[in-house]
Design a protein that fits this description.
The structure holds 2 protein chains of 2 kinds. Helix content of chain A is 31%, strand content 31%. Chain A is of the alpha/beta class. In chain B, 40% of the residues lie in helices and 25% in strands. Chain B has 11 helices and 16 strands. In chain B, helix 7 runs antiparallel to helix 8. Classes of the chains: A alpha/beta, B alpha+beta.
């Protein structure tokens, strides 16, 4: 595992930002952590980067406790955050010149390529850059040494779609070379990007699994009946968002197994005429799961 | 990577660094040009202002330097980079020392070399002051910078600590008896450098601990607690009693045994008014409570001193006086005022003087008719003549021990002003007088004898130069004062400077017989 988080908790006075959160990020994955604002994503990442101290629990990167990350490990980690503080009075080129000697693996060609791709002006002071340009610069400063792990904390927050696409394009080119951990509260940003996903809400991990498994197991089911739809109470726990409309019943099946579905539906409903299964977009999966959790 | 980080900071801060250096050089230049009375009061005020401006600007600059790679907070990019934090710390310390201490060294060299002092002496003095400045200015500013994230944050932290110091001092003075010196008995005395040295060491060690811990763990709250604890320890160090400090000072006596013959005894004089009287205890600093020193009752205790060597000055550093009743019960304790007794030439015999002390009126009223005994423990220093120099009126001379001296007749033609400056720690005790070279007649000597037994200049500001100024009157415009060397003889006169050095620090005790308290009082 590239990242291993065990029972991580962080308390701010009486408020628990993280509650016994455990998570593991497999090597080579593009791991997306999603959750609403205030869910604890940034707190988790800051603890992981040793910017914040956990109240209890441990977080490890490359098998090293995040509190003991040394320059050796940090040289293999890229970190980009929406509100990263960069030395504003240096120019883009000066900052890159400053960072270069700290990384033995720094690839000047890759640096130039990234600068060109993001159209970053080398002679411009950092504090004169727009928010989008600054995020691009942060990413530019995180890629040329080809980190083994790239940590992105809400990198697209507040960016216009054009810049977001540029960044995604930039990232996509290197995603296969490294493990990526990205947090986001906007599902549309990460759709089609991640290989694994975790959902955090109110400091707790609700689930974590590969994107493929998730989209496979969560399906929308539409059942047509010969009479007015009425599901037996209580409905199975893995049926969420159950809606009855005339003789049609729809629900989201959170543990979908194709071969078992027909039998399960017939055990719950009388007069089943037809059962349809539809794949769901990621966004709908999360909103359904989030709603179910809140209930 | 220290050098690499240093270069980055240089790129970001060289302009403000140049401004800090310029302030110090401007101060040194004005001080240099204004020396020997060439300056005017406006210029004097201006250069004092420049000095404080440099001090504040220097400290703010250091805090800003540290904030370039701030430690508290969770958004700094540099904290996620493979940058060794000890390298960052070393780079900051180097740059801060280069700008702040470098500027003082440059300023002091400008003054020293410009005034004709040798390079070696000037450099030694400049380096000694820079070392003190590093501890007293640079380290505290580095610590504040390491524990804060912004200038506003640093101001708030400094204000909180400043308020804490004020409240502590207020309470300590109130509990100690109402006067600052009662809580801090060595303050403004010749031995003050000893507790000061202790405090410098506390800053050095404490500052290093806070910074290393903060750069290693970034536990800002813990760092602030450690800083507060060190500050508290420093404040408490003011309460170190006089006796152990003076006992330590005694070890530094240059001529131990030279004061063995000196004896002090209780000896009522026939006419008190004809004898010298010690000054009253000089109260300064913070005073807490409703006590009005003007209501105090002044006591005069007759003392005689014997065994004074020739060409010496006896300086009282402290006089702890305890009043007890006939049964030995302690009634009151007070510090007596200082006295300085000079013995020049071949005078002999005892010297009588009255030791003054003030007690609150209530203590006096309660005990005025009682028989009391006064036990006085004197801490004293004997200064011995080290060298004697002369210079012409209106002359300018570099004197080995005393420094560069210049004299001139004042505008009103009533006195000769003598100004001297010395790189580093100069002598603190001298008598200066006008002498007619033709017949040897001389005016009454003027003395400057400030007890400061520190072996080095132990202050970071204003500069590494010791200054002396004395006025030798030779004409009284009212016609009442008469001088052996007066205006008519000033052309043939010379200035004689007699330099005294501390030879031995010692203690003596004087116990009075039982006396009625009101017999000692002067109303």
């Amino acid at each position: 595992m590239t990242i291993e988080i065990r029972e991580l908790s962080k308390k701010y006075k009486n408020h628990g930002a993280l509650r016994d959160l455990s998570l593991h990020v497999p090597e080579g994955s593009a791991f997306v952590v999603v959750g609403p604002n205030g869910a604890g994503k940034t707190t988790m990442i800051k603890i992981l980067m040793n910017l914040l101290e956990a109240t209890s629990g441990t977080a490890e990167i490359f098998g090293v406790d995040s509190r003991r990350l040394s320059p050796k490990e940090l040289a293999q980690i890229g970190y980009v955050s929406e509100n990263q503080e960069l030395p504003g009075r240096l120019t883009v080129a000066e900052y890159l010149n400053y960072l270069r000697p700290f990384y033995s693996q720094w690839d000047k060609y890759l640096e130039a390529e990234t600068l060109r791709q993001f159209r970053l002006p080398g002679d411009r002071r950092i504090n004169e850059l727009s928010h989008g340009m600054r995020v691009k610069l942060a990413l530019t400063c995180a890629l040329p040494y080809r980190p083994k792990l790239l940590v992105l904390d809400e990198p697209f927050s507040g960016l216009d779609p054009l810049v977001r696409d540029e960044l995604m394009e930039g990232l996509a080119g290197y995603a296969h070379e490294m493990t990526i951990l990205m947090s986001s509260h906007e599902l549309s940003e990460v759709e089609g990007f991640g290989t694994d996903v975790a959902f955090i809400d109110e400091g707790k991990l609700l689930f974590q699994e590969s994107m493929e498994v998730l989209t496979g197991r969560v399906q929308e089911v539409k059942v047509t009946l010969d009479r007015a739809a009425a599901v037996r109470r209580p409905a199975p726990v893995d049926w969420i968002d159950v809606k009855e409309s005339g003789n049609v019943l729809t629900f989201v099946h959170t543990q979908f197994v194709e071969n078992d579905l027909e039998a399960q539906v017939r055990s719950q409903l009388d007069g089943v005429q037809r059962v349809e299964v539809n794949a769901m977009p990621l966004r709908t999966i999360f909103t359904s799961l989030a709603r179910a959790t809140q209930r | 990577m220290v050098w690499h980080i240093f270069k980055k900071d240089w790129k970001l801060m060289w302009r403000s660094a140049a401004a800090v250096v310029a302030l110090q050089l401007a101060y040194a230049f004005i001080q240099f040009k204004g020396e020997f009375g060439k300056g005017n009061p406006v210029l004097d005020e201006f250069h004092t202002m420049l000095m404080f401006l440099w001090l504040i600007a220097g400290m703010i600059w250091i805090v800003m330097l540290v904030h370039q790679d701030a430690l508290p907070g969770t958004r700094q990019d540099w904290l996620t980079r493979p940058i060794r934090r000890t390298d960052v710390l070393v780079a900051k310390v180097m740059f801060a020392a280069l700008v702040v201490q470098g500027s003082t060294i440059a300023g002091d060299l400008l003054q020293g070399l410009g005034s004709g002092f040798p390079m070696g002496q000037s450099l030694r003095a400049a380096m000694a002051r820079a070392a003190i400045g590093f501890i007293a200015i640079t380290i505290p500013a580095l610590v504040i910078g390491a524990l804060t994230q912004s200038i506003a944050d640093a101001m708030i932290l400094s204000a909180v600590f400043g308020f804490g110091i004020f409240v502590f001092t207020l309470m300590a003075v109130a509990l100690g008896g109402g006067y600052e010196h009662q809580f801090d008995p060595t303050n403004a005395s010749g031995v003050e450098w000893i507790p000061n040295l202790m405090r410098f060491l506390m800053v050095l060690v404490g500052g290093a601990i806070v910074m290393l811990a903060q750069y290693r763990t970034r536990k800002t709250f813990r760092g602030r607690i450690i800083m507060a604890a060190i500050l508290l320890l420093m404040l408490c160090s003011q309460a170190i009693p006089w006796k152990p400090v003076f006992a330590f000072e005694k070890r530094f006596s240059r001529q131990p045994g030279v004061a063995n013959e000196i004896a002090l005894a209780w000896q009522p004089h026939i006419v008190q008014a004809e004898n010298p009287i010690s000054a009253d205890r000089f109260e300064f600093g913070m005073q807490v409570g409703n006590h009005n020193p003007n209501d105090d009752v002044r006591l005069l205790l007759p003392v005689s001193v014997t065994g004074l060597p020739t060409d010496s000055v006896l300086k009282e550093d402290n006089a702890e006086m305890v009043l007890t009743d006939a049964g030995g019960k302690r009634l009151y304790a007070v510090d007596g005022g200082p006295i300085e007794i000079r013995r020049e030439g071949s005078q002999s015999g005892p010297v009588a003087y009255d030791q003054a002390a003030k007690i609150p009126v209530q203590v006096y009223q309660d005990n005025k008719d009682r028989s009391v005994r006064v036990e006085t423990t004197y801490s004293m220093t004997l200064f011995k003549l080290n060298a004697s120099y002369s210079m012409a009126v209106g002359g300018n001379r570099l004197i080995t021990d005393w420094g560069r001296c210049e004299s001139r007749i004042n505008v009103a033609a009533t006195a000769v002003e003598v100004r001297c400056m010395q790189m580093g720690k100069g002598p603190t005790c001298a008598t200066v007088f006008l002498e007619d070279t033709r017949d040897g007649s001389r005016n009454r000597p003027n003395t400057t004898c400030n007890p400061n037994y520190s072996p080095y200049v132990d202050r970071p500001i204003p500069d590494a130069v010791s200054h002396f100024r004395l006025v030798l009157p030779f004409r009284d415009p009212t016609g009442q004062g008469k001088y052996a060397v007066d205006g008519s003889r000033i052309d043939g006169a010379r200035i004689v400077i007699r330099v005294y050095e501390p030879a031995e620090h010692f203690t003596r005790a004087v116990t009075s017989p039982l006396v009625i308290l009101k017999d000692l009082a002067v109303h």
